[in-house]
Design goal:
This protein is mainly beta and about 100 residues long. The chain is about 0% helix and about 65% strand. The chain has one domain.
């Protein structure tokens, strides 16, 4: 995708982010919770070695509740579903070729 501004072309890179989220609440005898971690990423070079990128991430976290650790509750799940929008400014100034 290209956007033209003041006669100059600015290139954007698009990508997909994905993985799993492992979470657990503090307490004894609690099983871990596995959730989805997925989204989109867009990045552009601001200068020769400076990149700006942003992500829109949907993330699931939570816990399986065991009554031994939380005696006032029944068996069940705690679900946390949320969106994250991290912004990154990356300096690309250390080429690997210089070190090998």
């Amino acid at each position: 995708m290209y956007i033209i501004t003041n006669g100059q072309a600015q290139q954007f890179q698009l990508g997909v982010v994905g993985g799993i989220n492992l979470s657990e609440l503090a307490g004894a005898d609690i099983a871990g919770y596995v959730g989805l971690h997925t989204g989109l990423k867009v990045a552009t070079n601001l200068k020769t070695r400076l990149e700006l990128s942003a992500e829109l991430i949907y993330s699931q976290a939570g816990e399986y509740v065991v009554p031994i650790a939380y005696p006032i509750t029944d068996f069940g799940k705690i679900h946390l579903n949320y969106l994250e929008i991290p912004l990154y400014l990356t300096y690309l100034g250390f080429p690997i070729d210089d070190y090998f």
